[in-house]
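User: Need the bound-state model for iron/sulfur cluster:
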Amino acid sequence: RVERRWLFADQLGPHFLDAPDQPVLLVESKAVFRRRVFHRQKAHLVLSALRHREAAGDDVRLVRSETYAEALTEPVSVCHPTSRAARAFVQRLDTVEMRPPRGFVTAPGDFVAWADGRKHLRLEDFYRFARRQHDVLMDGDEPAGGHWNYDAENREPPPRGARTLDVPPPPPIREDAIDDEVRADLDRWQHDEGIEFVGNDGPRLFPATRTEALARLRHFVEHRLPAFGPHEDAMLANDPLMAHSLLSAAINLGLLDPREVVDRAEQAYRSGAAPLAGVEGFTRQILGWRDFVWHLYWYFEPRYRTANALDARRALPAWFASLDADAVEARCLSDVLAGVRDRGWVHHIPRLMVLGNYAMQRGWRPGAVADWFHRCFVDGYEWVMTANVIGMSQFADGGRMSTKPYAAGGAYINRMSDYCGGCRYDPKHRTGDDACPYTAGYWSFLARHEDTLEGNHRMRRPLRGLRRLDDLDALVEQEEARGSRAP
Ligand code: FAD
Ligand code: SF4
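Assistant: Bound-state model below.
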């Protein structure tokens, strides 16, 4: 008889069990919500997924307790958890046997063997290694189609004049009695026990069951994947979803196995249902980026999480922390912040180039920014934050995972979106009443970090541009005066 498997709330799919009928232990701990202010829809999604998992199995024991320790009264096994704190907790328990991690395509040992001794850990190299090792999008020893990388085709601005991409939206989720119960519980915790949440409640938008997740995957591959590639990096004010998959929350809850997701995408390419460039771009996100950031979380030393190479010390302003989009006039930032408030999700470019870029320009503390992303996004987990927020978005690691800071002015946002036309600011202006906060913020960021960035050859051109500015003093003064006010 197989032992009971304790499943954390991000290990809910069949690939976390040794046999389909393995007995399961689930723990719903309220303490998690007392410690941190999570987005209301994220709390709903996680609790709904846990409770639906209880309802889906024959021998599933769901224990509701204040802490995990109280619930662990019998010997169980568990797959390697996804945070250092959870792993340390599991390792302290005599009654729990820990198995290797699941829920990622590549194995930790293979990553370490690939990474050890390399001067730079670059996604592109890891991604090629992973594709070869797992035979994904390969024709023998060669990449399918003859190229590893179709990024150049996948970085187009939005189609000219379009208000939306012409792709069918993901099918809506139908809430049920379990969702009603979760909503009532959260209301009660909020009003009677003072547990706080951030963001608006709303109908559940993301899968909480394996069935819902598979339906979303099928719909994406059939209807949205064919359009995924070209406008992957573009933003449209009236189309927050574009052709993105919205599968991150389901994969991170463990409802979908990332390997089945990339296999389905590859089948779509092989059958002629989706073009290679988009399928390659999508595969790169999952087999590449997702596995890469997972391994970096464990590979980098624990204090990587507290890295602060640019010495950014400012606190998150209240309007940002509380998702007060109405306080913001900058059209791009207001819209994206409203997306976080209303859905707990925006796609990659708003995260990196609107939210992260703004935070880095203003010198907000990277640890606080990472914590904010973790709490406010339906797909946020500690392992994702380290590389994505500390490394990629805030450059707080001084360049261990990206070659230059993802800092950009209004020109980038103007090229990649339709936001600027309807904004009270002008992306070309860096000083004056209509100076775009991103453009002004970009130059003042470069001015502040000129010495640190000097040795970075990819920053030479921007720094030359900085030295040619004749209004830098006025610009810096204006940015100082803006302080932490909403733009
Ligand atoms: P798609 O564009 O459809 O991509 C497909 C899948 O690839 C995603 O579902 C996701 O599983 C995976 N993926 C793509 N990029 C990454 C990446 N950089 N890291 C990990 N997985 C990736 N992703 C999270 O899952 N959770 C987070 O909390 C998170 N926070 C982020 C914070 C910042 C500042 C940045 C720059 C990126 C963050 N990402 C995070 C990565 C990425 O933005 C999201 O995975 C993606 O936007 C989710 O939407 P989607 O499912 O439609 O993705
Ligand atoms: Fe954003 Fe600046 Fe464009 Fe306004 S002008 S939408 S603030 S980039």
